[in-house]
Specification:
This protein has 3 helices and no strands. It is rod-shaped and about 90 Å long. Helices cover about 90% and strands about 0% of the residues. The protein is an all-alpha fold. It has one domain (about 5-80).
Length: about 100
């Protein structure tokens, strides 16, 4: 039976956190089926793959949160500008009358 560690590392990029844990266990299982030196190198690569995929997910989530905050700030600024415009129009009509 062929060790699935390399394939598992490729699948980690598209999986969720539960899938990542499962595939990491697959890598651990593969470590015991291979010769020790080969297994250690492959396992190390798999762990690095897991850590990189988690880091990429975190940075993507942070970027999305920053974009949402910027959109909220822009909406608040637009609302404040609209309120200021309506107040100035009311003051102008009061002066005309």
């Amino acid at each position: 039976m062929r060790w699935r560690g390399e394939e598992a590392c490729k699948e980690l990029r598209d999986s969720d956190s539960c899938g990542s844990i499962f595939l990491l266990l697959v890598c651990l299982g593969g470590l015991y089926k291979q010769r020790r030196d080969e297994g250690v190198w492959r396992f190390g690569g798999c762990v690095a793959c897991v850590l990189l995929s988690m880091a990429l997910r975190n940075t993507q989530q942070q970027q999305q949160q920053q974009q949402q905050q910027q959109q909220q700030q822009q909406q608040q600024q637009q609302q404040q500008q609209q309120q200021g415009d309506s107040e100035s129009e009311a003051a102008a009509t009061a002066l005309v009358v």
